[in-house]
Design a protein that fits this description.
Blueprint lengths: L5 E7 L5 E7 L2 E5 L1 E4 L3 H4 L2 H6 L4 E4 L2 H7 L9 H5 L4 E4 L3 H7 L5 E2 L2 E5 L6 E4 L1 H10 L5 E2 L11 H17 L6 E5 L5 H9 L7 E4 L8 H12 L8 E4 L4 H9 L4 E4 L1 H7 L2 E4 L2 E4 L19 H4 L4 H9 L3 H27 L3 H7 L8
Parallel strand pairs: 4-5, 4-14, 5-6, 10-11, 11-12, 12-13, 13-14
Antiparallel strand pairs: 1-2, 2-3, 7-8, 8-9, 15-16
Helix pairs in contact: 7-8, 10-14, 11-14, 13-14, 14-15
Length: 363
């Protein structure tokens, strides 16, 4: 049985920011929310993810498809497999498949690519992407899209939109599937993609915004695309930006932001503290007995674990050091979203953004 996405906008602020409640299969997230991806989902226990305020995680599906495509019915549900009882969002796997494909692998019916591990040639189609997401029991699925880099030539971006639009119209999406919108920074192309979204689509996933796109450009694009969308439906965006970018996108009206920020910073030895990064591998922290954040309620800071100890673990390449940073960072990112939700509800978004060092004039 396919799940159904129930999304209620709770408070629409004066600007584009809004709070909401997303419920699928009895699992819930308060939005704007971070959909956790990256190392946090594979190195922390479900209990730790909850302790750090995680509401939803993202799982890729292409690896499972490559391995089990002939035995989909035998696959366990992702919740049973990972023991994570919160929301699970899957991606369509199209981004990965296209990144492995040669230009001639982009076919009207799907994408042809060489498996980098086994050398096997695979042909991955929109139907495959939905079948694997369904088999894995995703709460929120995403539709297949032809992917082009944000700065790809206009012809490529238009071709990606034409193809994605054709697929959106060719067969009905499951009730818990977000329709993917591509088209780089081209307003007309994005609009053409939006126009092809079936009326029954559960929501929108704004795709094709990669890490190289500057924050201000992302915020501009998001504002432009959101104006094209049916307001009551959830909006999803995958980004690899910093905390400032997450807050800016969430306050621009994105409901679900897929981010690996916490793990990415931890892997570089960084703690997110207020509006800045603390580089824990620096020598001047070797004797610093303070906790990472002065007023942080995360499990690491609450346990009184010092900067000095984490520094020592990091310089000796002990994995516990990165783990402590990950827990702290994850809590910090989710806490920032909690603060933003409260600010949206209280109509004080500019004040909240200023607290994080963001100039509300940028909005
Ligand atoms: Zn902390």
């Amino acid at each position: 049985m396919t799940a159904q996405i129930n999304f209620q906008v709770q408070h629409q602020g004066a600007g584009a920011a809004r709070t909401g409640e997303l419920t699928v299969n009895g699992r819930q997230a308060l939005t704007p929310a971070i959909v956790q991806t990256g190392s946090a989902t594979t190195t922390l226990t479900p209990t730790e993810l909850h302790q750090c305020g995680t509401q939803a995680i993202k799982c890729g599906v292409l690896d499972s498809w490559r391995q089990f495509k002939d035995r989909l019915t035998e696959l366990p549900d992702l919740h049973a497999l990972t023991y994570w009882d919160g929301l699970i969002v899957t991606d369509s796997g199209a981004g990965q498949a296209y990144s492995w494909a040669k230009p001639r692998g982009r076919k009207p019916a799907g994408v042809n690519f060489h498996d980098p591990q086994t050398g096997t040639m695979h042909f991955y189609t929109p139907a495959d992407a939905l079948a694997i997401q369904q088999a894995l029991g995703a709460d929120v699925q995403q539709s297949f899209a032809r992917v082009a880099d944000y700065y790809a030539p206009v012809d490529d971006l238009n071709a990606a939109v034409d193809q994605t639009a054709t697929w959106l119209q060719s067969e009905p999406l499951p009730e818990n599937c977000l329709a993917t919108i591509v088209g780089g920074g081209l307003k007309r192309a994005r609009q053409a993609n939006v126009d092809a979204v079936p009326a029954g689509a559960a929501g929108y996933s704004i795709g094709g915004v990669d890490a190289t796109v500057p924050t201000e450009e992302q915020a501009r694009l998001v504002t432009e695309v959101i104006a094209m969308l049916a307001a009551p439906k959830p909006r999803y965006l995958s980004t690899s930006g910093d905390l400032r970018q997450l807050l800016l996108l969430a306050s621009s009206g994105i409901d679900l932001i897929d981010s690996d920020l916490a793990g990415r910073e931890a892997s570089m030895g960084n703690a997110l503290v207020g509006t800045r990064r603390l580089h824990l591998d620096r020598d001047h922290l070797a004797l610093d007995q303070r906790a990472l954040g002065p007023d942080c309620d995360c499990p690491v800071c609450q346990a009184g674990i010092s900067r000095a100890w984490i520094h020592r673990l990091l310089v000796r390449r002990q994995p516990l050091g990165e783990r402590y940073l990950l827990l702290h960072n994850l809590f910090t990112v989710n806490q920032a979203m909690t603060k933003l939700r409260a600010a949206i509800a209280a109509d004080s978004v500019p004040e909240c953004l200023a607290e994080f060092g963001l100039d509300p004039a940028e909005m």
